[in-house]
Amino acid sequence: MGFEQFGVVSFTATTKAEKFVDFLREGKVCGTICKACGAKFFPPRSDCNVCLSDDMEWFEILGDGNLLTYTEAMYAPAGFEKDVPYLLGVAEFKDGKVFGRLDKSMLEDGITPGMKIKLKVVNLEEGRVSYELTAA
Amino acid sequence: MPKVGVVAVGQSAFVRSYPGSIRELAFEAFRDALSGSGINANKIEASLICSAPEYDKQRTPAGLIAEYLGLNPQPTFYVESVCSSSSSGLRTAYALIASGLHDVVMVLGFQKMSEISSAESQERMGRGADIQWEAPFGTMMPAYYAMHARGHFTKYGTTEEDLALIRLKSSTYGVINEKAVFRKSLTLDKIMEPKYIATPLKMMDCCANADGSSCIILASEDRAKDLCEKPVWVKGVGMATAPINMAGRDTFSGLKCANLAAKRAYDMAGVGPKDIDVAEVHDCFTIAEMMAYEDLGFAEPGQGKELIRNKETYKEGRIPVNVDGGLLSKGHPIGATGGSQIRTIVLQLRGEAGEIQVPNAKTGLVHNIGGVGIYGNVTIFGVD
Ligand SMILES: [Zn+2]
Questions:
Q1: Which residue, B93, B129, B269, B297, is most buried by CB atoms nearer than 10 A?
Q2: Neighboring chain B residues of A98 at a CB cutoff of 8 Å
Q3: How far does B178 lie from chain A, in Å, by closest CA?
Q4: Least confident of B124-138, B279-293, B359-373
Q5: Average confidence (pLDDT) over B101-124
Q6: Would you call B122 and A68 a contact, using CB atoms and an 8 Å cutoff?
């Protein structure tokens, strides 16, 4: 199974970064690091725009991040209607910023920019897989 | 750099659903620009057709529209930077003329958004962001701008009421703009109704989809003086870009591409924010206008709310902004929007803006953003 299994609706079937989905199935949210120059990328890149190398290895985004911003979407584009309302946000981790859905249960305790965040993998319908930002 | 002047401007009415095809919609702005200008198709040496392509069944609209406007066999091509397509078109026209390649160039922006449903439209606009890493979460433009609103609120203490004041200003002028799609008078209570689209943005913080077209004709210095009694000169064309992915952004309280584009435009024009007499900014959402105040230097970062609280951006204020109602009232037909903003500024600098005329406007600015701060175009115009 390839990259089309990522997220609620995927618009990309083929990418050299499709191992991202395999790592999600192992419970890991991963970026890439350039073996030639050490540049770190999230979302993962297959090509280094710093030194032009395509020799990459994967690293896991670990630790707690800091929520930078979020929104609760009350409407959705075509294909996402059944999820409404849902949360989208950005958090900053030691190794980079991560954009994604926030765990809906966070609404109960309140969400504040600056709060501590960790990443978790979520299994969706029909074998699809994604990740969420949740309270640390 | 050689001087390049705007010699004619036109715009269709912006409407919910245009009762015609895209070629006919394009013709509306073309006719409006040419009527009474003494310019005809034979004088136009090249045309740039600007829109976002995903709305049309027609592949390669430039060829179709050039033919319908009677512009064959002159060169034509398509320019796209989503919502700022026609400002990118103006930038390209400037280069074509300043290089000496052509003397008279037309920039025609159009969008018939009603070709598709509103949900399909949101989905397509969401795909104006990173489709590999972000769209799978269900992204859409209001959510992206909402995250910037939250970023601005968190950093500077801006409130939903501050954003509502921007919409109130917009409606003040939308009511009197015959070409606007939204002409209803609004009250603060109405604007503050808690109909959230993506928190903290509510229904009235968002502009409406619209069908529309705009047309700008530019010429070299000699030809401009020949063709037009009151040419308006392009003084600075600033453009900058920022990462499409939110993970690549440094800040959620402003748009870096707009700030850098403004700096480039000011430097080229040899002016600063205090020299601007009237401005059109890309208020696709109220927060976008708030950030524009700060990104353009009309206010210090975090002080944009004081500008609107003190009504400084009204027609009578220190720096009038969007006194034609802006995108919030006019509607936002993607490819046509930049040209409509440029038209407003050109009319202001010619002293032909009627009821919304800012007295003695000599220097004007257009801020036109593509995507959520992917493309920033800032263009400065002057009377000499
Ligand atoms: Zn490298």
A1: B93
A2: 247
A3: 30
A4: B124-138
A5: 89
A6: no
Whole-number pLDDT of residue A1: 55
- Put simply, the answer to whether B137 touches A43 (Cβ < 8 Å) is no
User: Looking at residue B119, what is its pLDDT?
Assistant: 72
Interface-testing mutation among B123, B137, B193, B287, with chain A (most A C-beta atoms within 10 A): B137
Q: Residue type at A16?
A: K
Q: What number does CATH give the domain B4-117+210-232?
A: 3.40.47.10
Q: What is the pLDDT of residue B129?
A: 84
Max Cα distance, chain A (Å): 46
CATH 3.40.47.10 placement within chain B: 4-117+210-232, 138-208+234-382
Give long-range contacts, CB 8 A cutoff, 24+ apart: B155-161: B155/B253, B155/B302, B156/B253, B156/B301, B156/B302, B156/B305, B157/B302, B157/B305, B158/B290, B158/B302, B158/B304, B158/B305, B159/B305, B160/B192, B160/B200, B160/B202, B161/B188, B161/B192
Q: How does residue B196 score in pLDDT terms, banded at 50, 70 and 90?
A: very high
Closest partner residue to B135 (CB to CB) among A11, A73, A89 is: A11
DSSP B303: -
Catalytic sites of B, residue numbers = 83, 332
Closest residue of chain A to B121, computed from CA coordinates: A77
Which residues 71-90 on chain A approach chain B with CB closer than 8 angstroms?
71-81, 83, 86, 88-90
Kindly give the distance from the C-alpha atom of residue A17 to the centroid of ligand 1, in angstroms, as a whole number: 16
- The answer, as to whether pTM is greater than 0.90, is yes
Which pair of structure tokens corresponds to residue B193?
Answer: 């109704």
Mean pLDDT value of segment B178-191: 97
ipTM of the complex model = 0.97
DSSP element (H, E) containing A58: strand A56-60
Return the percentage of chain B with pLDDT > 70, whole number.
100
In chain A, the number of structural domains is: 1
- pLDDT digit string (tens) for B304-346? 999 999 999 999 999 999 999 999 999 999 999 999 999 999 9
Cβ atoms of B282 and B327 within 8 Å: the answer is: yes
* Intervals of chain A under pLDDT 50: none
Assigned CATH topology for domain B138-208+234-382 = Peroxisomal Thiolase; Chain A, domain 1 (3.40.47)
- Within 8 A of A24 by CB-CB distance, chain B residues are none
Q: Which domain holds residue A129?
A: 3-135
* Rounded Cα distance, B243 and B263, in Å: 18
